[in-house]
Amino acid sequence: MRALLKPVIARELGVVLLKPGSELMPMFISGRVLVESQPASMASFETGRVPDLRQPLAANPALRPFFLHEKVITAAGGLAGLEYWLLRHGGGTCQYQHSNYHYHELTTMRHEPGAILLCGHCDNRLREQYTERLAELARQNVIDWVLDIARVALALDKARELSLAELCWWAVRAGVTDALPESVAPRCHCACRRRNKRTARARSYRRYRPPASSPTRPARYLQHLQHLQALHQPLSQLWACLWIQNHRRP
Fold first, then answer.
1. Angle, alpha carbons 175-177-179 (nearest 5°)
2. Which of 67, 95, 154, 204 has the fewest CB atoms within 10 Å of its CB?
3. Domain segments of the chain: what residues?
4. Could you name the domain of life of the organism this protein comes from (predicted)?
5. Do the beta carbons of residue 205 and residue 233 sit within 8 Å?
6. Helix, strand or coil, per DSSP, at residue 63
């Protein structure tokens, strides 16, 4: 979760005071928090919780059905790919923190809807069990994994947050735009359209007219999906230019 807060500075004490309110208080319960200056793009935002569109995608509840969709998991590499990613990039420690003992060797345990990184001791203890705590841990692993796969596919720095437009572009490339929730598709379409206007082929995109919609889906939802699919060619040119600029030798 991200928030814009106005600090009160006590210079004599070397202390900065923040008043987050009850809605934002959970941000300070889990441990350390990231503090950074307000970006110029957020200057018009009100003090408090940052709008959902600018929140980290992993924390956006509206995108959870997309991340956990079977087609998205398959496009990202399947559960076998998730298990490999956990062993390579899962942090190198057992994810089950409610044990007094952890074996030094790590393995993965599949648990709906994904998988969990466990030590050998916790794997023997938890295998064949199902709890909501383990399910939430598996969900978060799937979300982090899909975001990382999308970041790698778009040749983006792993240290940066993925934007909604970038996630939608990955969905277009992976052929999973139909998994986008109806509440997210319009915002995704608008975000991609703003990015597409910066390219030289924006005029051809504006002339695009989607075909008639299927009666099994709301017409507006299908229209947004058709627009996303129409972005494939113009955005491929944009990403190619950006990649060449970033990797051009000095």
1. 110
2. 204
3. 2-50, 56-162
4. Bacteria
5. no
6. helix
Task: Provide DSSP, 78-146.
Answer: HHHHHHHHHHHHS-SS-S--S-S---SSEEEEEETTEEEEEEHHHHHHHTT---HHHHHHHHHHHHHHH
Termini Cα distance of the chain: 38
Please, what is the Cα angle at 65 between 60 and 66, to 5 degrees?
Answer: 85
Whole-angstrom distance, CA of residue 165 vs CA of residue 110: 31
Bigger pLDDT: 152 or 201?
Answer: 152
Output phi, psi for 216, to 5 deg. -85, -10
Mean pLDDT of 52-57: 66
pLDDT in tens, 119-178: 999 999 888 888 899 999 999 999 999 999 999 999 888 777 788 888 888 998 999 988
Q: What's the confidence (pLDDT) of residue 231?
A: 60
Q: Phi and psi at residue 77, in whole multiples of 5°?
A: 130, 0
- Residues 95 and 6: their CA atoms lie apart, in Å, by 35
Q: Which residues of 206-234 are buried (b: 16+ CB within 10 A; e: fewer)?
A: eeeeeeeeeeeeeeebbbbbbbbebbeeb
Taking the CA atoms of 24, 25, 26 and 30 in sequence, report the sign of the dihedral they define. positive
pLDDT at 23: 75
Are 169 and 235 within 8 A, CB to CB?
yes
AA identity, residue 189: H
Q: Is 58 exposed, middle or buried (0-12, 13-18, 19+ CB in 10 A)?
A: middle
